[in-house]
């Protein structure tokens, strides 16, 4: 199976976690795009979705799925999204598609985070994938210098502006042995909007696509 076929398999497998009549939290990226296609097939059974990016909103709407403003929704049963890396503790690096901030917000509202990923995303220790950090534009150089002090090698993601009008620094050279501590430390830097480390809000269920099918890992 190709990597995209594995992503499709987990995207469709996530339908098992959707309760009819509910509003679904929807992530961003190529794996989440398969989930949105799957959601389209049951659109008459759900009330709608809350989206984590302009791209996912456009795709949801193109399939006729109502998209709600998060401010008008006080509870989401599930949030379904991909990841760039996931460790055995179900903590993740996210933000390869620059959607980390809205993803973290929507995930925070959901009772359950369902991570959908092909097996290449599983790692023993987070950090091989450069850690995305969303930064207010005027703070870019300051935050980059502070990230160097934390042991990273930040790289400005050229020509990318997030849905919130900010920039992304991708931090290389990290071996994240204490994801909670690093998430707190980076979030505490003035000018940082969000770090793409999902440690405090790890996944509750991971659907991992491999050659033998979809494997379910629960906390
Ligand atoms: O900002 C993007 C998101 O965090 C994605 O969920 C993540 O990058 C995984 O994307 P993909 O499913 O395309 O590998």
From TrEMBL:
Protein's pathway: Carbohydrate degradation; pentose phosphate pathway; D-ribose 5-phosphate from D-ribulose 5-phosphate (non-oxidative stage): step 1/1
One Pfam family named in its UniProt record: Rib_5-P_isom_A
GO MF entries: ribose-5-phosphate isomerase activity
Swiss-Prot/TrEMBL catalytic activity: aldehydo-D-ribose 5-phosphate = D-ribulose 5-phosphate
Keywords, sorted A to Z: Isomerase
UniProt-annotated catalytic positions: 103 (proton acceptor)
Domain of life: Bacteria
SUPFAM superfamilies on file: D-ribose-5-phosphate isomerase (RpiA), lid domain (SSF75445), NagB/RpiA/CoA transferase-like (SSF100950)
GO cellular component, one term: cytosol
EC class of the enzyme, as a word: isomerase
GO biological process, one term: D-ribose metabolic process
InterPro entries the record matches: NagB/RpiA_transferase-like (IPR037171), Ribose5P_isomerase_typA_subgr (IPR020672), Ribose5P_isomerase_type_A (IPR004788)
Binding site for substrate: 28-31, 81-84, 94-97, 121
Its EC number(s): 5.3.1.6
Family that this chain belongs to: Belongs to the ribose 5-phosphate isomerase family.
Function as written in the Swiss-Prot or TrEMBL entry: Catalyzes the reversible conversion of ribose-5-phosphate to ribulose 5-phosphate.
Subunit structure: Homodimer.
PANTHER family: RIBOSE-5-PHOSPHATE ISOMERASE
Name the record gives this protein: Ribose-5-phosphate isomerase A
Gene label: rpiA
């Amino acid at each position: 199976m190709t990597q995209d076929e594995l992503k499709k398999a987990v995207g469709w497998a996530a339908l098992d976690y959707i309760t009819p009549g509910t509003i679904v939290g929807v992530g961003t990226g190529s794996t989440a795009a398969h989930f949105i296609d799957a959601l389209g097939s049951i659109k008459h059974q759900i009330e709608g979705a809350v989206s984590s990016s302009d791209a996912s909103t456009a795709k949801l709407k193109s399939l006729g799925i109502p998209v709600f403003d998060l401010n008008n929704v006080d509870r989401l049963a599930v949030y379904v999204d991909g990841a760039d890396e996931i460790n055995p503790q179900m903590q993740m690096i996210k933000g390869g598609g620059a959607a980390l901030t809205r993803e973290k917000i929507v995930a925070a509202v959901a009772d359950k985070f369902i991570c959908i990923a092909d097996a290449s995303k599983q790692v023993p220790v987070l950090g091989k994938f450069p850690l995305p950090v969303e930064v207010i534009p005027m703070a870019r150089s300051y935050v980059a210098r502070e990230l160097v002090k934390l042991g990273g090698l930040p790289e400005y993601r050229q020509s990318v502006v997030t849905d919130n009008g900010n920039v992304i620094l991708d931090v290389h050279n990290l071996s994240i042995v204490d994801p909670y501590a690093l998430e707190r430390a980076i979030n505490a830097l003035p000018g940082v909007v969000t770090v793409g480390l999902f440690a405090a809000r790890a996944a509750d269920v991971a659907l991992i696509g491999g050659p033998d099918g979809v494997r379910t890992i629960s906390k």
